[in-house]
Design a protein that fits this description.
alpha+beta
Length: 110
């Protein structure tokens, strides 16, 4: 999540780490952020097939990932005057029903 002077809050979703850079695989959303818009954005990513359960793997807990993105957007909205950046990377998305875990977080305030 970043705050752009012209557009306001921007939510950027992607695989994270070097995969984002190598695949150039991100989606940027403008508010309002809803579970439906985040789910649709995730489906556009090249890595969406991994979340769905590629090659017999268990499907990921996409609802938990969506809730993590929504929680970020709520935090950003509550701190919009001071927030410059909020970055959760990586988020480990566990199998469906087991949640998503943010391993590292960066919150930069101005």
């Amino acid at each position: 999540m970043t705050v752009d002077p012209q557009f306001g809050q921007l939510l950027v979703l992607g695989a994270g780490g070097v995969l984002t850079e190598l695949l150039r695989d991100t989606v940027t959303l403008l508010p309002p952020f809803t579970a439906e818009t985040i789910a649709a954005a995730l489906a556009k990513l090249r890595v969406a097939r991994l979340l769905a359960g590629y090659r017999g793997a268990s499907p990921a807990d996409t609802p938990a990932l969506i809730e993590a993105a929504l929680a970020c957007s709520r935090y950003a909205a509550a701190h919009v005057e001071r927030l410059a950046e909020l970055d959760l990377n990586p988020i480990i998305v566990r199998p469906r029903g087991r949640g998503a875990v943010a391993v590292d977080a960066l919150i930069r305030l101005v």
